[in-house]
Amino acid sequence: MAALTIKDENIQSLTGKVIVLTGGSSGIGLATTKLLLELGASVVSGDINPLPIEHDRLTFVKTNVKQWSDLVSLFDHAKERHGRINHAFANAGVSGRADYLEDKLDESGKLLEPNHEALDVNLKAVVNTAYLGLHHLRHQDPAGGSIVLTASATCFQRFRIADYTTAKHGVLGFMRGMVPNLEGSGLPLRINSLAPGLTETGMVPKGVVEAAGHATQSPDVVARSVALLMADETYQGKLIYSDQGKYWEMEDAMLKTVADIMGAGDDSIMEKIMKMAAQRGPSGGSLPGSSN
Ligand SMILES: NC(=O)c1ccc[n+]([C@@H]2O[C@H](COP(=O)([O-])OP(=O)(O)OC[C@H]3O[C@@H](n4cnc5c(N)ncnc54)[C@H](O)[C@@H]3O)[C@@H](O)[C@H]2O)c1
């Protein structure tokens, strides 16, 4: 695990950049919006709730991230106003909603499907936001830019809010799945994630955490990790954990632990299989993840 220091000079290059983000009306998203504006960037913010601030380089688009058409409009607004998107930050989130050991029954006594709100907002909508972001980054001229995903420190721990933890592990999984694809695309596209520890926001009230004997950090701390992931063009597939004002890059250490046991891993085999299948052509048989 590598401890990081984020200096002002590491994030200055965001001046003049255009960032689309979700969940910008509160907490980490709002702190990030303020930092980006201070750095001279333009922000197009999509949230289900109104923005509490105004700025001439800030556009608000009312967006429910669960609605695909809302997300499409959010990115279209950014493209129409600025002509280009440099970074997309998929951040909107909710706390856990499901209790998988609770029996919720319908009128006839049959078990009801669990509440999937946390999976829908924290995972499905994050994938949709990233997918739309990549679409715009790929098709602009010149192509390029980055995606930043809000995972959580719960993406690499046992954490008892199981639906939330499932979604956040899924966010990390999406990033891990996309890195080889982006590297193989030959385009200057990057994807990175943040893993905040307990941070004082609308979701995590300071008093509740402090009553349990743990200090929270300010969302301003997390905002700087978002800015670094956007600004540093050497970052690809990184995961920045922040807690109580300090930063660590986690992903390299976690992947090294796995590689020490597995070697190059299954993706190197999948790469060879896919190359062989491409040489054989469409009749070459189906692969996991292919639509054949
Ligand atoms: N606060 C923490 O300790 C902590 C730790 C790790 C990760 N996170 C993650 O940080 C992200 C931001 O959360 P936060 O802590 O700043 O909480 P927050 O409640 O202050 O902010 C969440 C924002 O998301 C918006 N949002 C929720 N559902 C939405 C929807 N359907 N469509 C559009 N916008 C929606 C809310 O209106 C709000 O502005 C989340 O993904 C959360 O899981 C938070």
From TrEMBL:
Pfam families: adh_short
InterPro entries, per database record: NAD(P)-bd_dom_sf (IPR036291), SDR_fam (IPR002347)
Annotated signal peptide: none
Keywords: Oxidoreductase
Entry GO MF terms: oxidoreductase activity
Gene3D superfamilies, sorted: NAD(P)-binding Rossmann-like Domain
Superkingdom of the organism of origin: Eukaryota
Homology family: Belongs to the short-chain dehydrogenases/reductases (SDR) family.
Annotated protein name in UniProt: Uncharacterized protein
Organism the protein comes from: Friedmanniomyces simplex
